[in-house]
Write a structure and sequence with these properties.
By secondary structure, the protein is mainly beta. The chain has helices spanning about 465-470, 485-490, 495-500; strands at about 1-30, 40-55, 55-70, 80-95, 105-120, 120-145, 155-180, 190-210, 210-225, 235-245, 255-270, 280-305, 310-340, 350-365, 370-380, 390-405, 415-430, 430-460, 475, 515-520. The strands form seven sheets. A three-stranded antiparallel sheet has the order 1-6-5, with no helix packed on it. A hairpin with a 3-residue loop joins strand 14 and strand 15.
Length: about 525
């Protein structure tokens, strides 16, 4: 006799931890850069460079890479960009982590503040969070059938249908984008790019046979010095659609996808056009893509066994199965107004705006998943001041949105991917802006169902005293919790025997029904 088993591929988070980090340092302006008159724009990125786990701790090394755009009063040079980095090293307490674990660490920059100490020195303050976790793959051996000799050891067994979401594919990959952007005729040739911003928008992943389709838009904004005697500063912004495929062996359309991405590397290079003029901007961008694909399956698992002529003991172990509760996507509209802060230059013309989603709270409610956070908006504009012709204003717009998952419980798991779908900033007057934004949310919600699963069975002879105590024939009155299975198990009689003796056409019985049970051993 043998249990026939099937491997169920599962994943779980074995341990996780998070911490907030503050860095604060001063940085000198390089000698080849002019003096600072006023700061205009800043941006930053946290790059994790090394992760070393030890017993219950993780040592994380990385750097804050930042860029600052500032104005100078030097003749002929109005805008200058300076780039630098601040290294950091942190030890994160993470109970249960081992030195051999593969620890995944993500960083989220929550705030970056730059200031002028003097014309040759900047202050940089940043607040960011580190999220570390150890995810592991494991197999559960589920009994799906039983092989036995009916003539020597008659057994009764039943199966239960279990919906599962098995791990099909897990991998990290990259998606390379190469585009060439040509300036319109009314723009001067590019002498030097001062500042650039490259953003991904409306990114969608679609599963195909052996491939993952990646579609979306790249928004490119550049401030540059144009060719000519006066070397005018011009701004140019465009949206470039893209469509790429990422190879994914074993992938197909019916799988469930949990895919996240970030910009890993980007490069903008000014190139000559067919006439030899510097009017082409070559963009090379690498998206780092983390792919998790699940496959839904209904498996019939042997849930109970009993013997008719033998005593059967089931050895059980606790397991937890994962199944899809809901796949949901939602959009939330954020509308608000931003005012130019006191002391800032008034707005003459808008140049560029960008937004970033920061989720501060994820909470399970009766309606679903409540997501609360802030939309961080930065706007670059032209002023009416010839001495300070450019400026930037920042705003924090709170939002609250509920992804409707009616049956969700606190034991269920989910991961939320949030992004800025569309951002529109319009001047109301020289001091106020109207901001409208569509936020996109996507999530998979999994239910974790604990149950006991048979891992082995032991067969022994029936206890003769127990057999003698069984009545040779009895009329049994069905109780509310009864079914033919547990009645047969109680009297060591097969379900087929009960149905045959009582001339039943189905296994359905109701409380109060009377059944004739005839002793089989």
């Amino acid at each position: 006799m043998e249990l026939i088993k099937k491997n169920i591929h599962m994943d779980r988070i074995r341990c996780k931890s998070t911490m907030q980090v503050t860095v604060e340092e001063d940085r000198n302006i390089p000698d080849n850069k002019p003096d600072v008159a006023a700061l205009l724009y800043d941006k930053g990125q946290i790059v994790i460079e090394e992760v070393k786990p030890t017993e219950d701790h993780v040592n994380i090394c990385g750097s804050l890479y930042f860029s600052v755009l500032y104005q100078t009063r030097e003749e002929g040079q109005k805008l200058v960009c300076v780039e630098n980095k601040i290294p950091f090293e942190e030890q994160l307490y993470m109970e249960g982590v081992r030195g051999t674990d593969a620890v995944e660490v993500k960083a989220e920059l929550e705030d970056l503040t730059t200031g002028v100490i003097n014309s040759r020195k900047l202050s940089v303050q940043a607040l960011f969070s580190l999220y570390a976790k150890v995810e592991e793959l494991y197999d559960e051996e589920a009994p799906v059938d039983i092989y036995f000799d009916e003539s020597s050891v008659p057994l009764q067994y039943r199966k239960v249908k279990t919906d599962l979401a098995q791990v099909a594919i897990r991998k990290n990959d990259i998606c390379r984008l190469k585009e060439e952007i040509v300036l319109p005729q009314n723009y001067p040739n590019v002498f030097h790019i001062i500042w650039d911003s490259v953003l991904l928008e409306d990114v969608e992943f679609k599963l195909l046979q052996e491939n993952i389709s990646v579609q979306g838009n790249v928004r490119v904004f550049v401030l540059y010095e144009g060719e000519g005697e006066e070397m005018p500063i011009r701004s140019f912004e465009t949206v470039v659609p893209f469509s790429q495929n990422v190879e994914c062996h074993g992938c197909h359309e019916k799988m469930l996808s949990d895919i996240c991405y970030e910009i890993g590397h980007k490069d903008l290079e000014v190139r000559p056009d067919f006439d030899g003029e510097q009017r082409c901007i070559g963009l090379e961008l690498v998206m780092d893509v983390t792919v998790k694909l699940y496959e839904e399956e209904t498996v019939e698992i042997v849930s109970d066994i009993y013997g008719v002529t033998k005593e059967v003991e089931c050895i059980e172990n606790p397991v937890t199965f994962k199944k899809l509760l809901m796949r949901i996507a939602g959009k939330s509209k954020v509308t608000d107004r931003m005012k130019v802060k006191s002391g800032e230059q008034r707005i003459l013309q808008l140049l560029h705006s960008e937004g970033e989603v920061q989720i501060e709270n994820r909470e399970i409610t009766e309606e679903g998943i409540l997501v609360e956070g802030t939309l961080m908006v930065q706007v670059v504009y032209v002023t009416g001041d010839d001495m300070a012709p450019y400026n930037c204003t920042k705003g924090m717009l709170p939002f609250s949105y509920t992804l409707e998952v009616p049956e969700i419980t606190s034991a269920d798991s989910f991961s939320i991917h949030a992004s800025v779908g569309q951002l529109q900033v319009v001047m109301i007057d020289s001091e106020e802006l109207d901001v409208k934004c569509i936020l996109d949310f996507q999530t998979l919600v999994f239910r974790h169902t604990p149950q006991m699963m048979i891992s082995d069975i032991c067969i022994s002879e029936l206890d003769s005293a127990k057999v003698e105590e069984l009545p040779g024939m009895v009329v049994y009155v069905v109780q509310p919790e009864d079914n033919l299975w547990n009645i047969g198990k109680k009297y060591y009689v097969s379900v087929d025997n009960i149905m045959s003796v009582n001339e039943l056409t189905s296994e359905e019985v109701k409380p109060g029904d009377k059944l004739l049970i005839v002793k089989g051993v």
